Amino acid sequence: MRPRATRTPKSSIASRALSRLALLVLLGATAAHAQQELPVYPGTVHTRIGNDLVIAGEYYRMAYFTTDDSMQKVADYFVKFWRSQGYPTAVDGDLEHEAVVSALYTREGLQRGVVLRRHAGKTVGFTVLRDLWVSAPKSPPPGLVKLEGMLYSQDLATRDAPGSSQNRSSLVEGNLEDVRQRVSQALVKEGYAPVRQSALKLGGETQLTLEHARKGEQVLTTLRPVEAGLTAMVQMWVGSDRPDGMPNDIAVQESRQEHQRSKQQPREGSKP
Questions:
Q1: Which residue from 121, 205, 224, 252 lies 20 to 30 Å from 177 (Cα-Cα)?
Q2: Would you say the pTM of this structure is higher than 0.85?
Q3: Would 224 be classed as within a structural domain?
Q4: 26 and 98 within one domain
C-alpha cells in the first residue's frame, strides 16, 4: 500500500522551503547513541555530512545519497521498512517534488528520517538521525556576536577531532561598512584582537573577511551585501589549537607578522 500524501501545488513549493528546513532540523542526529546507524537506501552510496553536528541546539548525524529510482519508490521503501518493524512512521510532501518520511524509535529515544528531493532527473535523499534524550549546550561562544537589526540567525556546531568549532549565519540590517564596524567593536569588547582583514570581489560585490583572535580561540567573519541595507554575515569560531598542530597563539603571531610584512613591501610597479 502506498503512503497517503498531501498534494502540494508547484507554486507553493518554493514558499515552503524554510518550513521544510525547519522540519529537517527536527529530524536531527545522535550524540549519545553514536553506535546507531543512519537510515540506508539499498544499492546507493551514502556520503556523510561532517561528523556529529549541532543545529539549533539539537544533535545531528547526516548523510546524502542519489538514485535513479522515483521519489515514490524511495519513500515506499522507508515506509514499509519502518512500519514492518512496528515503528510509528509519518509521511509528508507531494511525493513528486519533495517528501519527508520519519520514524520514531521510542525505546531507543531516537528519530530517523529521510528528506527527498528531485534534482537533474534523480532522487536526492538526506538521511538524518536525532537523539531525543540529549540536548546540546545552550551557550554559544562569545566570538559569535549578535548585532542589533538581525533578521535571521542560525547556529551550527561540529565536534570533529581535533577540536570543536561553531558557526553562525545571519542576515543583518545595515550596509557592509556599518556591519563591519559593529562586528569589530563587538569582538574587541569580548577581548578579541584584530589579526587581519581582506576584501574580494565576487560577482561585482565586495566580500570582506575579518580575522580576530584571543588566547586559544579564533573567529573568522565573512560579510557580503545581499541588497541595499542588508548584509549577510557568516562567522566561524574555533576553540582549540589548530589541526596542523601549531599552537593557536603562535599561528596568530605569525599571521600578524606576515600581514605586517605584506604592508611594508612595495607594490609592483611603484617607484623605489
A1: 252
A2: no
A3: yes
A4: yes
